[in-house]
Amino acid sequence: MEASMKKELYIDMLRLRRFEENVRDLFAAGELPGFVHLYIGEEAVAVGACSAIHSDDYITSTHRGHGHVLAKGAQPDKMFAELFAKSTGYNKAKGGSMHLAAPQLGILGANGIVGGGIPLATGAAMTAKLTNSGRVALCFFGDGASAQGTFHESVNIAASYNLPCVYICENNLYAGGVKQNFDGEYVNEGMDYPRKLKDVADRAAAYGIPGVIVNGNDVEAVHDAVKAATDRARAGEGPTLIECKTYKWRTHFEGEPDSYRPPEEVARWKELCPVHCFGQKLAQENVLSEQDLLDIDQQVNKEMQDAIAFARNSPDPTDAQALEDVYA
User: Which domains does the chain have, with CATH numbers?
Assistant: First the structure.
């Protein structure tokens, strides 16, 4: 991978991290309405995956979607405006955190329904195949969503028709507040979680498609795995299921008591921080100096503060706008 691309991957991951840290603080201060689910700790998945596709390709996301949307090319100012419920947001205050969408960028939307984006990505991939557009659809979802019927039905259709879709499972160890240990044992106050399978990628075998496991904290590994899968999809060879092993640093949603995660577990995963570790790797490779890292951090921080100022100074939607862009 070229040094220039490695630098861009680092900058993009840092942008995701700083965006989410600001969302955390703004929500805690009571400035943002609704609920937010933060992506901190999983930046390598979104950036690695979206860096491997074309600008006109599609993505679908989840309730934890800020990172995917940013990585696909959305601008922080319009994203913050949407979170502030301003008329200048991507969806004019109608999408909010869990339903951010920008079809003009190939972003078919975050989705508050668990597994809700999986059939949408499959449909987009069907469109790409029928129109021979050469596009690919990336579908992000969590390990919990792999137990939904939408997952199985969609992957079955995609496999049967060799659709150009890449299913990316972000296995962050928890489905909501229910933990999956990597030995396959589920624990939540004595309740069993309905999946005995250790690796979600093994589900691919049932549909005759490749199942790949990758270190979800390694942005280059994610990029390479997704690039191989999209090349395969564009060649007409059908979908791939990629499972990215990663970890969310925050609880399921902001404001939730962190009563179900061992502190030592959180600390251990924070030591594997995808942003910091990749920055240090680039420093060791002489791609970036320590001063470069500091300068990039300052530039990204300024970008975020400018974006927040734009959102705060944007107008609220009017009553009349409530009836605009409504189709059903």
Answer: 3-312 (3.40.50.970)
